[in-house]
């Protein structure tokens, strides 16, 4: 009996004061996904990897925008989006209090501007992804003369590059008329 009494006196509180005090979560806890739109290049790797289809990406060629969207109502907090993001723009926070009053508050959106092809003037990718690709190539290139060539070639869509290659173009002069494009 004395032994049981010592155990009871030495025991700490079994419950936490959660609503009135912050709750500590374990390391590696997977909470609400958060997007850093400044780092995101809208490559859609996270959209492809999401098993619950909570992430979507829509391209509007009329307004030259691509919209990244997360719907928390479908998210299963698996962390695949965080794993596959090449720029580490998505991370799972420790936030688990996700109650909202309106369904629209479950959506997180980010808009990105599309780059238009300098030959055919069609939007083909996000401007930030082109800028990142050029920056990575510039780091490897030591010749400043190639810098302007890299920027010119990066502003051309894959279809126009393919047409130029099939036409025997040297890659420097990618100039088709709009009539040849259609």
From TrEMBL:
GO terms for cellular component: membrane. Signal peptide: none annotated. Residues 31-60, 66-95 form the 4Fe-4S ferredoxin-type domain. InterPro entries: 4Fe4S_Fe-S-bd, 4Fe4S_Fe_S_CS, NADH_quinone_OxRdtase_chainI. GO terms for biological process: aerobic respiration. Pfam families: Fer4_7. Keywords: 4Fe-4S, Iron, Iron-sulfur, Metal-binding, Repeat. The keyword Iron applies. One of its GO terms (molecular function) is NADH dehydrogenase activity. This is Hydrogenase 4 subunit H. It comes from Kluyvera genomosp. 3.
